[in-house]
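I have a small job for you when you get a moment. Can you supply me with one protein entry, sequence and fold together? It will help me judge whether the discrete encoding reads sensibly. Write everything out right here, beneath this request:
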Amino acid sequence: GPLDLLLYLIKRQNLDILDIPIAKITGQYMEYVELMKEVRLELAGEYLVMAAMLAEIKSRLLLPRHAESSEDEEDPRAELVRRLQEYERYKQAAEDIDALPRMGRDLFEAVIQFPDRDTTRPDPEVSLEEILRAFSEVLKRADMYTHHHIEREQLSVRERMSQVLAAINADSFTEFPSLFPCEEGRAGVVVTLLAILELLKNSLLELIQTEPYGPLYVKSMESIHD
């Protein structure tokens, strides 16, 4: 959700959550919102509510403050900071609970051999924010081709899905950015993202990330089950 996106933007840049540079974060947040609109992802109303809240905080910070009342006046960012800190606590608690041994995943009732003492922690789940982060980097590279690439007939999402599957079948562990044909410009990479999202939805692909904020990789579900 929007708090997760804001927390991601703050953590990625090692910013102080108690002293958020609102103008900078608001600009980056709106870039992600516009990116979601561009790739036709359905935006939940809470994203737009947060955008309005950020805009209000930004405008309040720009207003002149009287010296005599500045000490008693609450920082316009205070409520946002409280919500972010509360969300971060809940998120950390959920991650700690998920890391505990779980029956059927880490523990099994009937075993013949003792399991290895070195248990492997599962890779972190890939969020929409992580996908958009990786895609925004691809989009920047694609924009460099905007005035140079040869105009081609636009492929359908279905056709691009077939191309993506063919590309990763040859190599079961593929870097996410390598699937995007930047030479086709912005239109080409948007179609590719829609194709990848459709393949993920149909459980034909899986996104892998070995560490938080790390690079994304793609595997075909066939190679995972082999």
About this structure: Confidence is low (pLDDT under 50) at residues 117-122. Residues 128-225 form a domain with the Arc Repressor Mutant, subunit A fold (CATH 1.10.10.580). The two ends are 35 Å apart (CA to CA). Residues 7 and 13 are 10 Å apart (CA to CA).
